[in-house]
Every structure is written in C-alpha cells, then in structure tokens.
Write a structure and sequence with these properties.
Number of strands: 9
Distance between the termini: 23 Å
Oligomer: single chain
Structural class: alpha+beta
Shape: extended
Radius of gyration: 26 Å
Largest sheet: 4 strands, antiparallel
Order of helices and strands: HEEHHHHHHEEHHEHEEEHE
Length: 343
C-alpha cells in the first residue's frame, strides 16, 4: 500500500512553488489559514469499502480509501481546534474538499506525464537528503518507509513527480508581471488594518497552583520565592524552573510575547501595567498564585510602509501566480472527463 504522500504529489508541488503563507517577523500577516479538524474521519455510511471507486478522472480511478486516508492524515496533523459538536459537519466538508483536491492531483499528474519534464537524479538525491535530515533522532528513512509499506524507489518516484510538477507550474507563470513598489503602496493604503500592531508584552511567570491541601498556602510560598528573587539569592528563571507549576518552567517561566485578550483578566492587567524588569506583586487567578516579570513591551502602532514593502511585493506577486495556476487547473478540469459514481 502506497503512502498517502504519493496521492498529493502534484498538490504539494503547487504549494511548494506558491509559498504565500510564510513566517513573518514584522508582526502582521497578509494571509490567514483555516482551522481544520481534530477527529478521525469515518467512512461514508453509503459504503465501508475502501476499495470502492468513487471517481473516474479521464479513466483514472479514485477510491474511497484514498479520500478517507487523506482526511484522517489532515486531522491528525491539525490537532484539536474545533468544538466536538462541529466535527461531523466539518468532516463531511473535508471529505468533499479532499475529493476535489484529488481530482486536481490526478489531472496535474497526467499533465506532468504528458509534458515529459526531465528531473535529474542529483535533485532527487538532494530531496532525499533533506528528508533524512528532518527525521527524529534515532529514526531512519528506511524504517519509516517500511512502516508505511512503501519503498525507497517509490519515494524517489514521488519526488521526481513533485519536482516535475514544480517545473510545470513555473512554466505556467512565466508571463506573470512582478509587483512593484507602486502596487505595494496601493495595497498598503487600501488595507490599513493589515498593518496595525497591537500592544504586546514579553513576560515570564512563576505559578504556585492551588491544591486541596489546606496546610499549604500558595500565596505564602510565593511570597518567600519573590523575596528571594528580589534579594538576589536566585534569578527569576532559576526560581521558575525550581518551583513553578506551569509547563513554562522548562523555559525559565517564559510565556513569550502575547497581546491583550490572550490571558485571563487578572493576569493580563498585571502584565500590561508592570514596569519592565519588576518582580510584580502576587496575582491570584483561577489557576493559582503568580508572580510576573515583564521583559519587553511593544506599544500599539502601525508598521511603516518601508518595513512592509518587500513582503507586500512578494505577496502580490505570489497572489498573481496563484491566480494563474488556479486558472490553469480550472482549464484542466474543463477539458477532463470526470465521473462521480453513485454507491
């Protein structure tokens, strides 16, 4: 049984080529991503047979098991982000979405074969090397392939198809005009909310959780810890590592950077009013007693155009390329014979 990786090689090629959703160090996002699903997809009640053919795309078959595998894989990667009561409806939406994605994948696979695009062995070996480097410590590629009932030769074939698909997409967007500074300024002026930055703080805390043991007073315990920090007997990070009940203790109590509305009200008020570097007074929340130390504060403001310009240009150019590729795929669909079977 082939790994589900093989089923999406054409789609992943387009994602690799049009990398519009990127990490952003400037504090704003030009694009958003959808929340997906959190529970395993069950087979459609019309049939439990994973070998049942549900679609024919230019005589290429898509089986129900292929769709179910990809829905399950997506939800396993996303984790719990959806209320349980919404899962059944969203699962069915995802089933339909994956089915359409697989139609596109089959059409792109066929177009790649027709174009007979050459891919060098060196490029394939480089991708294999990248995969090996990304594996968890102690795991080998061969072991993982065996678990997935796949082979190294099959993986190389998938990678060859992926790289060829990328080249195919590059050919489709050769005529796209790159965005320029004028385009970027127009976008900047017409979308001011995209470039607003909220007030944020970077902070650490030490939590002494409330317990049922009445003999222990979390507030008194935290007072002693706070006094030791202020006296210079121990650093805040060392005290957090030794005493905090929060998982952040592994990082010296660091909670990273956060904005308003992300913490419970009592904690938020303290974090946004404390002086930088101060070991604040004890704050009590539903989780227990905290002391907070703020290391940095960023005021609310607007990202300057010059700071955002290059990212906007890249975004607008990628958007144009994505539209070109979407039109290309739509044209493939228009020319295809797509049969949906009733089971």
């Amino acid at each position: 049984m082939r790994n589900t990786y093989t089923l999406l090689f054409a789609l992943t090629a387009s994602i690799l080529f049009i990398a519009t959703a990127q990490d952003n160090d400037n504090g704003f996002d030009l694009l958003t991503t959808e929340d997906l699903f959190s529970a395993p997809m069950q087979p459609n009640p019309l049939t439990n047979d994973p070998e049942a053919v549900v679609l024919r795309v230019n005589n290429m078959e898509i089986k129900r098991g292929e769709i179910i595998d990809l829905v399950n894989l997506t939800m396993q990667r996303i984790g719990g982000q959806v209320p349980p009561q919404q899962i059944p409806q969203l699962q069915q939406q995802m089933y339909t979405r994956v089915k359409n994605d697989l139609i596109n994948a089959k059409l792109i696979e066929s177009a790649v074969k027709k174009a007979d695009i050459p891919v060098s062995e060196a490029d394939i070996d480089a991708e294999i090397a990248t995969i090996r480097e990304s594996l968890p410590e102690g795991k080998t590629l061969e072991e993982l392939l065996a678990v997935q009932e796949n082979t190294l030769d099959e993986l190389k074939t998938d990678i060859r198809n992926q790289l060829a698909s990328r080249i195919l997409f590059e050919q489709q967007v050769e005529g796209v005009t790159e965005a320029n500074a004028i385009d970027a300024k127009t976008f900047y002026d017409e979308n001011p909310s995209n470039f607003q930055t909220p007030e944020q703080v970077s902070a650490s805390h030490i939590l002494i959780a409330t317990t049922e043991d009445a003999s222990e007073d979390p507030k008194a315990t935290l007072e002693e810890i706070r006094a030791s920090i202020i006296a210079g007997e121990i650093s805040f990070a060392e005290a957090a590592a030794a005493h905090s009940s929060c998982p952040s203790s592994a990082k010296g109590g660091s909670l990273g950077t956060f904005g308003k509305g992300q913490m419970v009200p009592e904690f938020e008020i303290a974090a946004f009013t404390q002086e930088i570097g101060e070991v604040g007074d004890i704050v009590q929340t539903q989780f227990g007693c905290h002391i907070i130390q703020v290391s940095e504060r960023t005021e609310e403001g607007t990202i300057a155009f010059e700071t955002a310009k290059n990212q906007i240009i890249e975004f607008l150019t990628n958007q144009s390329k994505q539209q070109m590729i979407s039109s290309y795929i739509e044209n493939l669909r228009d020319q295809a014979t797509i049969e949906e079977l009733s089971l």
